[in-house]
Amino acid sequence: MQLKQLAESLGCELHNSDGTLEITGVSGMEQAGPSQLTFLANPKYAHKVKDSKAGAILITQPHATMPSLVSKNPYHDFARALALFYQPPVPARGIHPQAFVDPTAKVGENASIGPFAYVGPGVTIGRNATLHPHAVVYSGATIGDDFTGHSHTVVRENCVVGNRVILQNGVVIGGDGFGFAKTAEGTHFKIVQSGVTVIEDDVEIQSLTSIDRATMGETRVKRGAKIDSLVQVGHACVVGEDNIICAQTGLAGSSILGKNVLLAGQVGISGHLTIHDNSIIYAQSGIGGDVPAGSVMSGSPAFEAREWLRAITAFPKLPDLLKTMRQLEKRIQELEKNKSDG
After folding, report:
1. For residue range 31-80, what is the model confidence (pLDDT) as tens digits?
2. Of residues 15, 132, 235, 276, which has the active-site annotation?
3. pLDDT tens per residue across span 155-169
4. φ and ψ of 308, to 5 deg
5. Residues 76-128: pLDDT tens digits?
6. pTM (2 d.p.)
């Protein structure tokens, strides 16, 4: 694709080039070659541009010498460009002879259901769905249009999945919530998890993540949320619109996340609390109470991130500070003793 065609496709302004350069792909700044497009989204990496061998760059202002596609959002346009050059393999349309689709299931047009996939009784699946080999949909589940379920994904009984949802390998939607009642004898009696899990439109869930079904009612992941690999969302939780939840995060039951919440990796959320809109929780934080809207939190137990940064700066100095304090206490005691003796 010529650079001028790429600029037109992305809606970017072309500078420092007649646009005839043939672009064969996209790559990071250090790896890009003379026929590839790269990008600069963060100004702190601007010094690396001069050493890049890329044929052109997506950037917010024209570069002095390099052919430039000027963009208001270079990172977003880089992602769009990447989609122009790489498309994942599209499975053949139709139901594979080695798949099982129950006669009572309703599957929309243009579906692709791979070998050893299973679609149970009473299931409804919309148009253009793709179920890769070994994907499983339990009885009574409802799935919208343009669904992609990669190998070994599971949508459990009576759960609801919206349009344009992507489940990466090994995702479980609607597995039993972790609920047990302790008996008089000290054993654990399983509480039936009678609720469902609802996944709204435009959600993507990465590999080996579990979204538990509710004990009663529902667990819900709202529109546009993106959930990373190895995340646990407990029963009756609500994940808000456009949330980003990074790997190895755990939400205990009945946690509620507002809109545009960001949870970095390995965050732990105790149950029955609310993290309000536009909050950011730094990696490895432990949240034990409600978080006000727009907060930035860190630490375990977590508190305001700027205070946390000051605190962690002081932590390594604590032994010396303690030693100094003890010396001062001893000196004060000596001065008071001398004063009383005099």
Report:
1. 999 999 999 999 899 999 999 999 999 999 999 889 999 999 999 999 99
2. 235
3. 999 999 999 999 999
4. -60, -40
5. 999 999 999 988 887 899 999 999 999 999 999 999 999 999 999 999 999 99
6. 0.89
- The letter for the amino acid at 115 is P
Helix locations, 262-317, DSSP H: 305-314
Whether residue 332 lies inside any domain: the answer is: no
Cβ atoms of residues 229 and 250 within 8 Å: no
Specify whether 176 is located in the same domain as 44. no
Tell me which H or E stretch contains 104: none
* Closest alpha carbon to 168 in 135, 200, 196: 135
Count of CB atoms situated within 10 Å of the CB of 31 = 11
Average of per-residue pLDDT across 135-159: 98
State the residue for tokens 């090994």: 170
CA-based nearest residue to 57, from 76, 80, 32, 79: 32
Instruction: Please check whether residues 80 and 224 belong to one and the same domain.
Output: no
**Total number of domains constituting the chain:** 2
Q: Does one domain contain both 107 and 161?
A: yes
Do 242 and 290 lie in one domain? The reply is yes
Range(s) of the domain holding residue 59: 3-85
**Do 18 and 161 fall within a single domain?**
no
Q: Do residues 206 and 229 touch, judged by C-beta distance below 8 A?
A: yes
Which H or E run includes 298?
strand 296-298
Active site residue 272: no
DSSP one-letter code for 91: P
The C-alpha R_g of the chain, in whole angstroms, comes to: 27
pLDDT at res. 342: 65
- 117 and 72 together in one domain: no
* Count, residues in the chain: 342
Give me the sheet containing 130-131, strands edge to edge. Answer: 94-95, 112-113, 130-131, 148-149, 166-167, 204-205, 226-227, 244-245, 262-263, 280-281, 296-298, 303-304
